[in-house]
Every structure is written in structure tokens, then in C-alpha cells.
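Hi,

I'm pasting everything inline rather than attaching a file, because the server keeps stripping attachments. The sequence lines come first, and each chain or strand is labelled.
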Amino acid sequence: MASNSLSGDESGLRSRPIVIGEQSFPYYFGRDCITEIGAAIAALGADRLVFVTDDEVLSRYRRDIDRLAGSIPSLILSHPAGESMKTLTCLSSHLETALRAGITRRSVVVSFGGGVPGNLAGLMANLLFRGVRLVHVPTTTIAAMDSVLSLKQAINSGVGKNHLGTYYAPEAVFTDVEFFTTLPERELRSGLCEMAKNCLAIDPSALTGLREVIGNMTAPDSLLWLLDASIAAKSAVTRDDTYERGAGLVLEYGHTVGHAIEICDHRMRGAAGLPHGAAIALGMLVAAHISHARGWLSDDEMSVHYEIVTGLGVEPALPDSVRIDDVLAVVADDNKKGYLPPRPDAVPFVLLRALGRPECTGDLPLVPVAVREIRAALDVIAQPSASAPVVVG
Ligand SMILES: NC(=O)c1ccc[n+]([C@@H]2O[C@H](COP(=O)([O-])OP(=O)(O)OC[C@H]3O[C@@H](n4cnc5c(N)ncnc54)[C@H](O)[C@@H]3O)[C@@H](O)[C@H]2O)c1
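And the predicted assembly:
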């Protein structure tokens, strides 16, 4: 999986150049490398650092944040963890606080945490003085292997997830795989679900490596391999697609229904609801069932989906708390609508013709899928025992 663009530098940090359309930035990663990350942040010459984090991360990693800040005057903006942070209210409050604290165009916004503080920080950096520098320090697998490899920065509206956003590139991304070892297992597995998505939809050759690390997830070498493989897979489709409105839309595999399940479950169960990655894993099963019903994915390819999803510890079943009608109502508001000519009772969807081969409409890896097809696939995962295929290999 590793390509020859991976390099190490004198400090021991590995680096990969990330190119997204016309934007590019370096991604530095390693193990036990907080000192090196701090030195790299200091080299940006910021007059002030604005750390954006959440309360859980802050209580666990306050010392590391202080080490990253070093002697640079810093402001720490924190909020209780979770999606309630991705709101206009929180965004507005953080922006006002930063401005009142006297930040300038030379200040740098540093996201320190998961995808939630990362998205909020990205939007803040873009809005402050029409753009100040942004650095991501992702501490979850979802953030490190997925969200920071996208320029998309979004918060939620009262209507749906990620409806209010923009595209903004960081100066650099830095992470230490030791962060991932303190993640609750369900969060760690959640990030690996996004990696599984990349394997199934983009690069099935990485499935062998993924199977190997599923059994030994917290070993530093496994985490370094996963991070590197994720960076390579995601970069491969976003390189020529700044806005993820072309080939990069394949990254939405599993997301149309996955996001909807996540939203519905969180409405019912709050923080006890499915983690993001697990919801996306269920969304992939729904997409796979639709492809299978169309005669595209084979029985074996269907089984590979189940093997990987269950291997990652996700129960391949719709939670009892989630009603199919509610999921379909949210799906109707999916943020991919508009990419294809509108059709009554159909939504744009990423479906696979085969593993690693999305079906396209023109240049877009999207096809219209009838609501009745989605309902039929949801019915299958709502009654899993009757339908789960035999797992092969
Ligand atoms: N921009 C994009 O393209 C993109 C892609 C994927 C996901 N996202 C967004 O990312 C969010 C999900 O990301 P997430 O799962 O990282 O959510 P998150 O930021 O809420 O983190 C999940 C939980 O892990 C805790 N946590 C963070 N780091 C930790 C650590 N090292 N040890 C222990 N606990 C830790 C947090 O406090 C939080 O409770 C969603 O809002 C999603 O929309 C965006």
C-alpha cells in the first residue's frame, strides 16, 4: 500500500504530501512525537494559537495541548463533546471569544480532537478575517483517516447534518498514533469502518492488510499502517477533485443511509447511539444489498461486506430504536441531492458494480436509487437473522 511518496524527516515524523485539486498540504505522523509536532507548530510564527477542542479531549490531553502551545500565547476553546458542538450557536460563541481575545490575521487555529472540533475549527479559520491559518491535530481515527483528508468543513443545521459549510485547506496536519490508544474501542473501530469503506469502494487490494490489523488494532505498527493506507486511498480519489463533487463522491459510499441512521438513532438514544463509523458500516450494507438486488454485486462480494463489518464489531442490524420511515425521511434531505437531475421517489446514491468499481452517471460515481429499493434493503437489515449471507473466507 505504501507508495514512494512517503518520507520520514530528521525529527522522526513521517510525512505524506496531500494534494486535493489545487490545494496541497503536508500530513505528518508518527509515534510519541508531541515534541516534534510542537516544534513544527512553533515554526509557523503565529502570534497566538486558538485551540479548538472538546471537554473530554481537554481533560485527557491538557498537558499535550500545553506542550504544543509552548511559549506561544494561546486560547483554548472547548465545549462538551459531540454533535451539539457543530451548531451555529457554538460557532458564533467561539468566533466572538476569539475576536475578543485579540486574535489577528497572524493567529493560527489549531483543531485538537476528533472530527467534530476539526470541522468547527475549519469553519472558524475560514471565517475569521476571511481566512486565517488552520492546523489539524486529529486525535480520533475518523478525524485522522478521513475528515482531515477532506477540505470540507461543516456544521449541522436544524434540518440535517453538515448542511452549513465550506471548503478550506489546513497548513498542515499532525498526529501521533498514541492518541488512538486512548479511544474507547467503539470509537477506534468506528474509524476503521471508514477505512473499510475505502477498501470496499476504492481499493480492495488493501482488504488483506485490513484483515490483518482487525485482530491487532492498537499495536502501533498496525495504527501506522492503517493511517498510511487510509491517506493513500482517500488521496487517490480527491487528488483531482477539490470539492469532492466528482470522483471524490465515491467517499460517500454508505453515507446516504448511514448518515440518516446516525441522525435517527441519536434523536432516540442521544450519545448512546451508534458511532458515526458504525452507522456508515450499516449504510454500506444497505448499499450492497441494493447493488446485489440489481444483480451487480455477487454473493461473495456481499459476504465480504458482512465479513468486514462484523469483523469490525458492528452488529449488522438496524438498531431497534430506528424506524425505517424516519430513515427514509432523512434520506430525502441527503446533501447529494442536486448532483443528478431530480426524479420523484429517487435519490442519488453511490452503488458498486463490483468491489472498487462504483457505477457512474456521466463522470459522477452516483446513480438514482428508488426509495422502494432503499426500503427493501433496510427491511433486510432490520430482520438480519433471516437475511445475513454466509460469510466466506
Ligand atoms: N469533513 C469531512 O469530510 C468529514 C469526514 C468524516 C467525518 N466528519 C465528521 O466528523 C465527526 C465524527 O468524528 P469523530 O468520530 O472523531 O467525532 P468526535 O470529534 O465527536 O469524537 C468522538 C469522541 O471521542 C472523544 N475523543 C477524541 N479523541 C480522543 C482520544 N484520543 N481518546 C479518547 N477519546 C477521544 C471525543 O471527546 C468524543 O467524545 C462527524 O461530525 C462527521 O460529520 C467529517
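The first strand starts at residue 7 and ends at 8.

If the labels don't parse on your end, tell me and I'll reformat.
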